[in-house]
# Entry
Amino acid sequence: MKFLNLMQHNLSETQLAEIRQRFSCEKEDKLSEIDKVTFDALKSISKDKSISDLSAYAQKILALGYSTLVVPIGNPFFMSILTKKAVGKDVKFLFSFSERKAIEKKDGDKVVKTTIFEHKRFDVLNFGEEV
# Structure
């Protein structure tokens, strides 16, 4: 079974292994490769996008026919529209849950702060089932 990665970054080996093991999805497709226009529009949603514009993007993604989507993309407002459009459809949303770690290193008179996101698990919403 295939899944669609909507995120702006590549999945880590840990994330891919979890998707294979927990959700029996072997092949990853990326929105950035199969519909670059939609991906580019969503990765930095501008203030001038209307609810109907965002709704059309959500319909377009769901019409691709994937039963498993790795999210998020865009902003939380778009995510609420996308998930609402999926109610009653057999679509699983895999929300990546990461732990943020900050590492500070002294470099002379400066402190350099690096933020690392460590994947912990995917949280699942399936609107075809009771929540």
The mean pLDDT is 89. The first helix runs from residue 13 to 23.
